[in-house]
Write a structure and sequence with these properties.
CATH topology of the largest domain: Rossmann fold
Helix content: 25-40%
Strand order of the largest sheet: 7-6-5-8-9-4-3-10-11-12
Number of helices: 9
Strand content: 25-35%
Number of domains: 2
Distance between the termini: 8 Å
Number of strands: 12
Shape: elongated
Length: 255
């Protein structure tokens, strides 16, 4: 018998929402860790080649960029293609990767650039980094998806930093959610949603019964949004990797 937010369940089964490209890998990671898991994808990821081309042109013509922020592993292909073509005449920019998966993907390309990650893998974590709070940080490029990470450009702009954004991919809602296996709401003990967008899509396509379950997300900002949607029990894990989420669940929900 396990304890979940002071309620007893005879079996822990989690619902984790991920974009389609990450769905099976995340579900498999949880299952291999001994956690019964249903993966659900409510959206797919599509690249935007035209925006990737504009990013490449911009980097070719802008040698004085101080920081390039890569906000997701889905932004890495466009970032690498552009960076491999760019030639920085002055000091090369520092790459900020929002999380471990993004940083590892960038490191694998052996770029001659410094790659750093924030202590907290969130927009808020990026904004407090030393590199973005130095006097010589005047030009920043953000490589992101449509409709995401708006706080970054807003806050950096308020600091007087010139910010240029390139939305190189987009989330396409699926007509019907895709699941890794059959399930029913009565089997679910908790829900993991790693972004506000995914959480809202999950709520819109399922019974409001899911609002009564305990939820886990990856930032206080998303947690606040979930509470505003009517979810009372929301916890936060400060990293979005499968390994970090699994460790949090085993420490807080499984035993």
């Amino acid at each position: 018998m396990y304890v979940v937010a002071n309620l007893y369940y005879y079996k822990l089964m989690l619902l984790i929402t991920r974009p389609l490209p990450k769905l099976q890998a995340s579900a498999d990671a949880f299952e291999q860790a001994g956690i019964d898991t249903i993966g659900v994808a409510t959206s797919d990821i599509q690249s935007i080649p035209s925006k990737a081309g504009k990013l490449q042109q911009f980097l070719l013509g802008s040698p004085s960029i101080n920081i390039i922020i890569v906000t997701s592993i889905y932004a890495v292909p466009a970032a690498l293609h552009a960076l491999n073509q760019a030639s920085f005449l002055s000091a090369p920019p520092t790459l900020i990767a929002v999380g471990d998966a993004t940083a590892n993907a960038l490191h694998s390309a052996n770029l001659p650039l410094k790659i750093v990650t924030p202590s907290l893998h969130t927009s808020e974590g990026i904004l407090v980094m030393q590199q973005l709070n130095e006097a010589n940080c005047t030009q920043v490029v953000i490589i992101k998806g449509e409709g995401g990470r708006d706080k970054l450009s807003h806050v950096l702009g308020e600091r007087g930093i010139s910010v240029t954004e390139f939305c190189v991919y987009k989330r396409e809602p699926l007509t019907n959610p895709i699941y890794t296996k059959r399930w029913k709401i009565g089997d679910v003990s908790g829900i993991i949603a790693t972004s506000e967008n995914l959480a809202k899509q999950l709520i819109s396509t399922h019974s409001r019964q899911i609002l009564a379950l305990p939820w886990l997300t990856v930032s206080e900002r998303v947690a606040t949004s979930l509470r505003n949607l009517g979810i009372a029990r929301v916890s936060v894990c400060n990293r979005a990797t499968d390994q970090a989420l699994i460790a949090w669940v085993k420490e807080n929900w499984e035993y």
